[in-house]
Structures are given as C-alpha cells and as structure tokens.
Amino acid sequence: MDKQGMAGPLRRVMALFARGRQGVAEIASRAARPSAEARHAAWNTKVLGSAFARQLYASGAAGPGVRPQSFPVQVRLTSGLCRQADIEQPWLHYWCSRLGMMPIYHRKVWEDCFVAQALWEAGMLNNRRRALGFAVGREMLPAFFAAHGVEVLATDLGAQDQKARGWQDTGQHASEIDHLFWPTLVEREVFDQRVTFQPADMRRIPDAMADGSRDFVWSVCSLEHLGSIQAGLDFVVRAMDCLRPGGIAVHTTEFNMAADGPTLDGGSTVLFQRRHIEALGERLAEAGHELLPVDFHPGRGVLDQFVDLPPFSEEDGALPVADTPHLRLAMGEHVATSIGLIIRKAR
User: Cβ atoms within 10 A of the Cβ of 59, count?
Assistant: First the structure.
C-alpha cells in the first residue's frame, strides 16, 4: 500500500491513540478476555503497528537499512524511559552493531544498549575494570564486557532453586559458564580468562560479593522478579555495597506508565511507578549515592503511544506479526515499558 493509501488507516489509528490512557486501558482490558473479538483486536493492533514500524524502517530511521555507526557517541545519558527516539539515535546504532543486534523498535534492544552506553560514558569498558552481573540468564553482556578487557563475575539463581525452573524452561537461565559464551563477540580463550560464574540470589547478596571491590554492577530486567516492589528496591540498595567508591550501577526494569493508581506490586513480576523510583533516589541519596536524574517523559513518537498486546511471541520465540513494535506493552490493565537507572556510589 502506498503512502496515500495508508493515510486513512493511520489517521484512524492516531484518533484512537488520542483518546489517551482510557482508550489504551479499554484495548488492554478487552484483549485480556479470551474472546474472538479480543483476538482479532490484538491481531489488528499488531498489523497496524508493524505497518508503522516498516514505514520508519523504510525511511532509514532505524532497522535493517541503518548504516552502522563506526564510533561511540557521547550523549550524557541519564536514567530514563525507553523511547522511540532512542532507537533512532546513532549511539544506539553503534552498540547494536557491536552487539550484533538489529536496531529495531523493541525495548530489549534498548536495554542492552542503554547498559553499554551508560558504562562506556562512565569509562568502565576497559581492561582495568572488574564487574558483577546479576541474574544474567543467557545475556550477551558478560561476553561483550570480556571482549573489552573487563573481568566479569556473572551470577544467576542456582540450578536447584525452585524459582530457576521457569527460567530454565524458557532458556533464560544460566547455570554454567558455557551458557554465556557468544563466539561472535569474544574469542573462547579470552572469555575463559575473564568470565567466571557463581550462583547467587539477588534477594540475598552474599557478603563475599558485597565487599566493595567492583567497578560496576548491572542487571537487565531482573529486579522486578524478586517477589515485591520492596524486594526490588532493597536489591538496588544492597548491590551498591558491591561497588568501590565512585563505582557505577546500571539496572533496567519494568515500569508502569501510569504515574499513580494501582500497579502490580507482588508476584512473579512487579511494575515500578514514578513514586517508587523517586523514593529509591531519596533512599540512595541518604546513603551518599547518586541516582542520575530520571527523565520520565514518555516520548513524542507514534510508537511511544503504540501498546503491544499479547501474545508477544510464539512458542518458538518468533513474533506473531513480523516487525511489531514492542516499546510499550499491555500487562493486564497496565501499560508498561522499560526504565534504565544509572547510579554512582558515594566516593
């Protein structure tokens, strides 16, 4: 369909988005009911979102046609929300090229690039650094950091832990070092020299790890799975004990776009809200640490308003509709995205 033919459908979709949070909540609520209408609505949403994304990819803003950035770009990154504009920026394109990822409109792409950019700007990606990663699953980041000369201790729940079984079933749990090796990122000999693995529970960081010896710590979309909002916040504070003075912590997690009102505050996944992040900042400041300023602006792009509906992937991991944007998603009545936090330890 040409641009003129797309104009009518796009105007109708934009009118739907213009209804604001109430309209989004209605869509999410209907999609949660197992009816034929809800399934059709979810499918139509994904198709229209895919059309938006493909138009942007065709324009060269992001996606497979982007020319890889050849050097990192200083942007003075601060804490903040995942946004469409970030996916279209040279700094993210650089890290995608280094990590072997496509700069697509997906918050998981943003999360890895956010961590890499924050640590690079802090001067942490060199062979003088020691790092500690929490709940690493089968991330690329341990191998990526090793390729930059960093000594990495990667951790995850022990294989015998009951809570690890769900992650094992979906291939997102690491129980041994081989699960973290990515040959496209680092040579095996270098990886073996610089990366070690140790079981650890984020809710109970061992004293041996909280010894103030690490230059940086990180976690990617993990602290929301600790059972409660309080447990997640407690982890962030406790993890600061692992850092040397002036060290850096970078975490990404799930964020409820609604500034107030109810949220998911217990269970297998919780959704943090602005009030929780601000309270965390105050708690860290009391200990002398600094949470870099948090940009809570939701973004101005059309895909910042697009809310992906379940199912988010097929059993084999494929997208139900190719190129469906996934910067925002419906979680029951809530609209969620990713937030990145950058924290500097007291000197």
Answer: 11
Per-residue CA distances from 185 to 23, 66, 110, 262 (Å): 43, 21, 18, 42
Q: Is 150 in contact with 173 (CB distance < 8 Å)?
A: no
Number of CB atoms found within 10 A of residue 169's CB: 9
| pLDDT for position 215 | 98
Q: Output the pTM of the full model.
A: 0.86
Nearest to 164 by CA among 155, 173, 177: 173
What's the pLDDT tens digit per position in 290-300? 999 999 999 99
d(CA 327, CA 306) in angstroms, rounded, equals 8
d(CA 237, CA 284): 7
Q: What is the pLDDT of residues 246-271, one digit of tens each?
A: 999 999 999 999 999 999 999 999 99
* Dihedral sign (CA 44, 47, 49, 55): negative
Q: What CA dihedral angle connects 246, 251, 256 and 259, to 10 degrees?
A: 10
d(CA 42, CA 234): 36
**Beta-strand pair 329-331/334-344:** antiparallel
Closest CA to 135 of 65, 219, 33: 219
Average pLDDT value for residue range 74-82: 98
Q: Residue 105 above 70 pLDDT?
A: yes
Q: Which structure tokens are listed for 260?
A: 């107030």
Closest CA to 252 of 85, 95, 113: 113
Q: What percentage of the chain's residues is helix, strand, coil (to nearest 5)?
A: 40, 20, 40
Amino acid making up residue 22:
Q
Q: How many CA atoms lie within 13 A of 336 on its CB side?
A: 24
In the 3-class helix/strand/coil scheme, how is 19-52 assigned residue by residue? CCHHHHHHHHHHHHCCCHHHHHHHHHHHHHHHHH
Tell me the percentage of the chain whose pLDDT exceeds 70.
85
